[in-house]
Amino acid sequence: MLKEKFNLTGRNALVTGSARGIGRAIAVAFAEYGAHLTVHGSKESAPLEEALALVRAFDPAAEKWVADLRDPAAVETLPKDVDILVCNASVQSNLKWWDVPRETVLEQMQVNFNSTLRMFQLAFPRMKERRWGRLITVGSVQERRPHPEMPVYAASKSAQENLVRNIARQAAADGVTVNNICPGVFFTDRNKAALGDPVYGRRVTDAIPVHCYAMPEDAAGAAVLLASDAGRYITGATILIDGGLSLPG
Q1: Residues of the domain holding 92
Q2: Which of the following is catalytic: 153, 156, 213, 228?
């Protein structure tokens, strides 16, 4: 039955940056579909505990991984028993390209790209041995429509998407799919202040064909599809969740 193909029972899932927003919504959805979850935050925090409590409503044994991905040594502590890895954590800064300092460039590339590659490297051997695994990135519509004041963030997400396509071809024969979820304008903590401004918020939604922004849960369905056997034949793909924002016109 098709319903059973979405069942994640017996799978161990880790979602980075799952204390809030899209990462939290994906983690809760995975737990609801039966996966054993590890939620992640860069530090101990109330939001991380809230996310853990939400996940434990479905998976009482859910765990947490606290690691600052800006630190390469922290990335090396990635839990070992991961069947589904969602690299969602990211950092961004709003600056003109000529004003971006070197340390800001390095920080964004470390969290948004370097840590993704390293976590893929750490998780892949177990997936290959079991001949089943899911590597998923959470990108950004800026892969296609880069914001003029987020040049490094946009570039890091484009690099991440390129990495997905590259690795997907190589990992497919080992039963491991590699895909990218590409969110558009989502109402998350990161965007709440900007979208809450009635003038700016209206300008943004007017530019989106569906004329509204997304909520974190709008990314969860695509993530469950890619993580489950229902999505076994999808690899190297980018799934846009942007209300048509990236469409030409």
Answers
A1: 2-241
A2: 153
